[in-house]
From TrEMBL:
This is Peroxidase. One of its GO terms (cellular component) is extracellular region. It is found in: Secreted. GO terms for molecular function: heme binding; lactoperoxidase activity; metal ion binding. Its main location: secreted. Residues 1-20 form the signal peptide. Keywords: Calcium, Disulfide bond, Heme, Hydrogen peroxide, Iron, Metal-binding, Oxidoreductase, Peroxidase, Secreted, Signal.
Length: 317
């Protein structure tokens, strides 16, 4: 009898942990249309704005690398509390209205079932696929955080050396392979001139391809009152396609931001860059794996957090 009690206690201890894990098809019973609703919202936006893929990739990364993938980046500031949105690295994050649109539809179909954190993750995957990237199954079941603090936003900057940038990834249990793979998302990104102005001032960085240097000087030199901080594509080849072209570009000294170019130069990362540049299938496979791994960072599951009714506002207690 005593043995049965011990077994029952162990079962009850293990059961919540088992139920709390992320899994593919988490909403198959509670909201069967969840993934198709998010997909429809992404497709609608993508049809008129292909740059949304880069925006969602950035939003997803900036969310997961602060408090974990808990949609804390979506919370608006109030008169009492400033949120992550006002932190310097997040001032140019965009795509919030797409998340709002998907959430509004989901709330009308299955209220308080689908988390904002899962919407970000699913939407990013769908945008990657639309941009020619790999399709991959997204484990869901994340819950939304109730804290958003700008002082906690400590993301790797564009001028950091590889070793320092890697420290941020290691803190999230990510490998160097993961970091190089995820920075491959720059294949569809842009950067404002202020993020690389030091590389093009004066005679410019001698490690940069002269043709690219001249091009960037022209873009940034055209800054005006209406556009004081222009942008340049990070991938000069296939700027709207999720592929391995970014890695080919940086091997040709055509990295725009310092961290991008350093990936191809640093002994810690250049081997991964070389392999991805020469093997598109390898990059697609690793990108899908790394995105799933990133999406699992410090997630809230089970009874932790909440399911926000409005992604911009913490639920009233």
């Amino acid at each position: 009898m005593m043995g049965m009690k011990v077994m029952l206690v162990l079962y009850l201890m293990i059961l919540p942990l088992t139920l709390a894990q992320l899994k593919v098809g988490f909403y198959s019973d509670s909201c069967p249309q969840a993934e198709s609703i998010v997909q429809a919202a992404v497709l609608k936006r993508f049809s008129s704005d292909k740059s949304i893929t880069a925006a969602l990739l950035r939003m997803h990364f900036h969310d997961c690398f602060v408090r974990g993938c808990d949609a804390s980046i979506l919370i608006d500031s109030t008169s009492q509390n400033q949120s992550e949105k006002v932190a310097g690295p997040n001032l140019t994050v965009r795509g919030y209205e797409l998340i709002d649109e998907a959430k509004k539809t989901l709330e009308s179909v299955c209220a308080s079932k689908v988390s904002c954190a899962d919407i970000i993750t699913l939407a990013t995957r769908d945008a990657v696929v639309l941009s020619g990237g790999p399709s991959y199954a997204v484990p869901t079941g994340r819950r939304d955080g109730r804290v958003s603090n700008p002082s906690e936003v400590n993301l790797p900057g564009p001028s950091l050396p590889v070793s320092q940038a890697f420290q941020t990834f290691m803190n999230k249990n990510m490998t160097m392979d993961d970091m190089v793979t995820l920075l491959g998302a720059h294949t569809v990104g842009v950067a404002h001139c202020n993020f690389f102005s030091d590389r093009i001032s004066g005679r410019g960085d001698r490690r940069m391809d002269p043709a690219l240097l001249a091009k960037l000087k022209g873009i940034c030199g055209a800054a005006s009152g209406s556009n004081p901080n222009p942008t340049a594509f990070l991938d000069q080849g296939t700027s709207f396609t999720v592929d391995n072209e970014f890695f080919r570009q940086i091997r040709l000294k055509r990295g725009v931001m310092k961290i991008d170019q350093e990936l191809a130069n640093d002994r810690l990362s250049r081997g991964f860059v070389s392999r991805f540049a020469s093997n598109s299938t390898l990059f697609r496979t690793r990108f899908a794996q790394a995105m799933v791994k990133m999406g699992n960072i410090e997630v809230l599951v089970g009874n932790a957090g909440e399911i926000r009714k409005n992604c911009r506002v913490i639920n009233a207690k």
